[in-house]
Known about the structure:
Strand content: 5-15%
Cofactor: Mg(2+)
Helix content: 25-40%
Number of helices: 12
Shape: globular
Mean pLDDT: 89
InterPro entries: EngB_GTPase, G_ENGB_dom, GTP-bd, GTP-bd_ribosome_bio_YsxC, P-loop_NTPase
Number of strands: 7
Low-confidence stretches: 1-13, 25-32
Strand order of the largest sheet: 1-3-4-2-5-6-7
Structural class: alpha/beta
Order of helices and strands: HHHHHHHEEHEEHEHEHEH
Protein name: GTP-binding protein 8
Bound molecules: guanosine-5'-triphosphate, magnesium ion
Oligomer: single chain
GO molecular function: GTP binding; metal ion binding
Radius of gyration: 18 Å
Domain EngB-type G: 113-286
Amino acid sequence: xxxxxxxxxxxxxxxxxxxxxxxxxxxxxxxxxxxxxxxxxxxxxxxxxxxxxxxxxxxxxxxxxxxxxxxxxxxxxxxxxxxxxxxxxxxxxxxxxxxxxxxxxxxxxxxxxxxxxxxxxxxxxxxxxxxxxxxxxxxxxxxxxxxxxxxxxxxxxxxxxxxxxxxxxxxxxxxxxxxxxxxxxxxxxxxxxxxxxxxxxxxxxxxxxxxxxxxxxxxxxxxxxxxxxxxxxxxxxxxxxxxxxxxxxxxxxxxxxxxxxxxxxxxxxxxxxxxxxxxxxxxxxxxxxxxx
Length: 292
Ligand SMILES: Nc1nc2c(ncn2[C@@H]2O[C@H](COP(=O)(O)OP(=O)(O)OP(=O)(O)O)[C@@H](O)[C@H]2O)c(=O)[nH]1
Ligand SMILES: [Mg+2]
């Protein structure tokens, strides 16, 4: 599939551009908040703008013309929508964004009527980092991340004003908390205001055995979910292209409750973060957009 789908000559033609971009991304990691705000991204040249804002469309440039990319464009916010969504993630006196509470059992979870979304995935896949990146315009919100797997031990609730709640989950797999299943399964099954689960997959590794178990569980419970591909700054374009197409095919053939579009992101350089803010605001019912 790799040979079929990826235009290698185009990759090498673009290698100069990629190395320039890579150098810029390294600079960005030294100044991490540089592209947290969409207005800064809008000042970039078109190619860089697309790479940061629409990583899937950017990837499409490297695919052969006969590859079906229609699911890349299911959720299509325009720049005004992205700005509107960003406003939800900027705190003010009237709109407080903050950590709320942690819970280790469903019956400890706070009763909240606001729409909720949660972030699930293998330990170390980048769940807490993604929440930190989403909240990068609210620097007082403390989201703890670690290079060591198994860092998040509880379900951590973060309130975005009175609009919606984000829930950072412990990871499954290596160093998962012992009571992971007792904690997370009842939450997924019983949480009435849970609007969508964001299941994070490492862009370089693709869907792993444990991810398959999580997908089967979400399918069995009939919980709407969406796949987010993390750490795309670390994945070569050819690897990412192969994984995106394989996962897209898998979603089409094997899932009912999964949103058809994947969301590739980097919490390091903010690729895909702006559109994800938009998708969350839309999921929570605060940003009406047509999905085609
Ligand atoms: N290069 C890169 N590193 C990332 C990215 N996201 C997370 N990381 C790194 O991956 C490691 C794990 O990140 P976390 O956000 O703590 O992962 P987690 O999924 O919350 O892990 P647990 O809480 O243990 O389940 C940290 O060292 C992060 O700096 C990313 O987009 N790019
Ligand atoms: Mg974590």
